[in-house]
Amino acid sequence: MHKRTAKILKRCLHGLFVAATYTGATAQDTSKPAIDSTAKPVMTAVTDTAMVKLPDTYFQTPHWGLGLTVGSNALFGLDVAYSINPMFTVKLGYNYLDLAYKNLTPVFKSIKLPAELGGEVNMQQSHLALTAEFTPTRSKKLRLAVGGVFFLKNEISGNIFYTKDLQLNDMVITASEVGSMKGTYTTASKIAPYIGVGFGRTVPKKRIGLNLDLGAIYKGVPMLDIQATGLLKGNESNEAILNRNFKPLQWHPVLNLRLAVKLN
């Protein structure tokens, strides 16, 4: 009797274990979402930011620049530049040139002129320059420039004289009696157009940059004035000949080196 009762209890415990296992598996399966066979797969696009070239922040805002210039028409030059956008820049500057050569005797000797002949040259050039610059290249380092120049001073003068007395046989002619001859060069118009090309950004991307400017100023027909004293008096009649000979020289070359500083 006892053995029979134990067998019945064993069968009941086995049935309860099977029922509990089935119930847990069913509950676990029902927690999963149902699969919709009509739903389309969703494709997620992944963008590799390393492959995308971001815009250069330098060209997103205008910039101010300051320039210091030295060259053929500027012993000292100062300008302010404004970069409107990546392709256009406006520049306003002042250039000053004042040079004097007081002793031309070695030059005269080198071209086999009399050793007693002396001379001096004075160059006075100063002007305001306004230019608009266009950068056609992708690097923005090559510039095309057009503009105008307003002359404050535009004069080159030279003076020739004898430094010693002249001995002609038994006659002596003093240097003051021989006299001197002075020539002055200028142009009629105070305003002149300018065209040129430049290398390097007018307003650099970094704090400091270098520019090279090549161009020409159209000064127009030269005007030469001759004044003479002493025995040299009368050479004023050569003005017409000199003006005719210098007439083709209406374009004046420009070669400047500029140190550029970005202000913002």
Helix content class: 10-25%
What count of helical segments does DSSP give?
Answer: 4
Question: For the terminal residues, how far apart are their CA atoms?
Answer: 106 Å
Largest sheet: 8 strands, antiparallel, barrel
Order of helices and strands: HEEEHEEEEHEEEEHE
Your description of this structure?
The chain has 264 residues and is α+β, with helices and mostly antiparallel strands. The chain is 18% helix and 47% strand. It is built from four helices and twelve strands. It has helices at residues 2-30, 105-110, 175-178, 239-246, and strands at residues 63-71, 74-83, 88-101, 117-134, 142-162, 166-168, 171-173, 180-187, 191-199, 208-218, 222-228, 251-262. The strands form two sheets. The chain has an eight-stranded antiparallel β-barrel. A hairpin with a 7-residue loop joins strand 4 and strand 5 (142-162). The longest helix has 29 residues, at 2-30. It is elongated. Residues 16-31 have low confidence and may be disordered.
Topology readout:
Layout: H1 2-30, E1 63-71, E2 74-83, E3 88-101, H2 105-110, E4 117-134, E5 142-162, E6 166-168, E7 171-173, H3 175-178, E8 180-187, E9 191-199, E10 208-218, E11 222-228, H4 239-246, E12 251-262
Antiparallel strand pairs: 1-2, 1-12, 2-3, 3-4, 4-5, 5-8, 5-9, 6-7, 8-11, 9-10, 10-12
